[in-house]
Design a protein that fits this description.
With 143 residues, the protein is mainly β. It has one helix and eight strands. It has one domain: Immunoglobulin-like.
């Protein structure tokens, strides 16, 4: 028997920050969740409609191994660890491989800082709406 089911398009919504309302609608319409299998493992935390954080699990990396680059609409995180000379591993279950991860940022999302503590890289993001884009009250005139 031939499977005639159409494969549902699964969009990598963890690569787009500030578009969560769009993903909610896409997931509702397609009834499909994200299936991410990237490295490094990461969380995206939403504190409010204006504040987010990205948390990257980077045990074994050092601060000097990491680089964060913010461009308009794009966030790039690079890991480039140096091999430690003189170490012989009998088992190496904690990877420290090179990586480059790119994330799309919604309009007006800015990187608001980063910290690396105990193997966790946290990048803070903030939505900065210009005054002309903020909600405003419209006065109703009468004749």
């Amino acid at each position: 028997m031939v499977n005639t089911r159409t494969k549902v398009f699964s969009f990598p919504h963890s690569r787009f920050i500030g578009f969560d309302h769009v993903w909610d609608e896409i997931e509702r319409l397609t009834a499909a969740g994200a299936n991410e299998k990237g490295f490094p493992r990461h969380n995206i935390v939403k504190y409010s409609d204006e504040e987010y954080a990205m948390e990257f699990a980077l045990g074994g990396y050092k601060k000097k191994d990491l680089e964060i680059e913010a461009k308009p609409g794009v966030l790039i995180i690079r890991g480039n660890p140096e091999e430690e000379a003189g170490k012989t591993y009998l088992h190496k279950g904690i990877t420290t491989k090179k990586f480059v991860e790119t994330f799309r940022l919604a309009d007006h999302v800015v990187v608001d800082g980063a910290e690396f503590v105990n193997g966790l890289l946290v990048i803070k993001l903030r939505v900065e709406l210009p005054e002309e884009k903020r909600p405003r009250k419209i006065e109703i005139n009468s004749h």
